[in-house]
Specification:
The protein is an alpha+beta fold. The protein is 25% helix and 24% strand.
């Protein structure tokens, strides 16, 4: 059986989900009432993860892969391992909302990139591929608040977001050169100005013959390089990165 490639996964995933809107009205209770959600990224990330999981599992089963889940603080969201060859894929679900300058946070750089087994389901060195299933959505405003006299039922409430783009990319293709969020040690993506940028655009590591290795090396040593490099041009010219050309 052939190994699952990102092109094969992408093709199968979008074939299975081609008619999906990815929209959710809210949480349905046992009395058929719908409790609304807002457009908070953490809530919506969980929704996309749960919606994507059945398609992901179907593809994995077809190609002979076993699927494992991680907890919220452990990378990745899904691990797919071929039960015969041991080929292992990390797949993370990432979301961001539309604004003038959009970025994704792509996981920590102070964990498994520096310690092979820290905050990761299996040793980082055991993964061959690292993929991102990404969603860019537009926030449609705050949800309506209800009381017990007018709780809505299915079909009586609108979704608080609209999905603008869905993509599946190699993680290193999306990685930028700056940390992703405030004071936390998160990898930041390149900056996008429109949703389609993440479907087709390439980050600063695309110029290397060994882009994943260059990306891992940069982020494992982020404090040493972040101020000195800053641009893709300085990155490819830096002597420490010539080994990846």
């Amino acid at each position: 059986m052939n190994a699952l490639t990102i092109d094969g996964f992408r093709r199968n995933f979008f074939n299975l989900t081609e008619n999906w809107s990815w929209e959710v009205q809210g949480f349905l209770d046992s009395n058929s009432f719908v409790h609304p959600i807002d457009s908070d990224t953490k809530v919506i990330s969980t929704i996309f993860e749960r919606m994507a999981a059945p398609a992901l599992r179907s593809i994995a089963r077809e190609f002979g892969y076993h699927v494992e889940l991680a907890n919220q603080t452990t990378y990745p969201d899904f691990t797919m391992t071929n039960i015969i060859t041991g080929h292992r894929i990390a797949l993370d679900i990432k979301t961001t909302y539309t604004r003038a300058r959009m970025i994704f946070t792509l996981g920590g750089y102070n964990s498994f990139l520096r310690n092979d087994t820290k905050n990761i389901l299996h040793a980082y060195s055991s993964y061959t591929d690292h993929w991102v299933l990404g969603f860019v959505y537009k926030q449609l405003g705050h949800h309506t608040e209800y009381d017990l006299e007018n709780l809505p039922k299915a079909g009586e409430i609108t979704c608080p977001y609209k999905v603008e783009a869905v993509f599946i990319r190699e993680k290193h293709e999306l990685c930028g050169l700056k940390a992703g969020s405030g004071n936390t040690k998160n990898i930041g993506s390149f900056v996008g100005s429109k949703p389609s940028d993440f479907q087709h655009g390439m980050g600063p590591f695309a110029g290397f013959a060994k882009p994943k290795e260059a990306c891992d090396f940069y982020w494992a040593n982020y404090e040493a390089f972040s101020l000195a490099i800053g641009t893709a041009e300085r990155l490819v010219a830096h002597p420490d990165f010539q080994r990846f050309m």
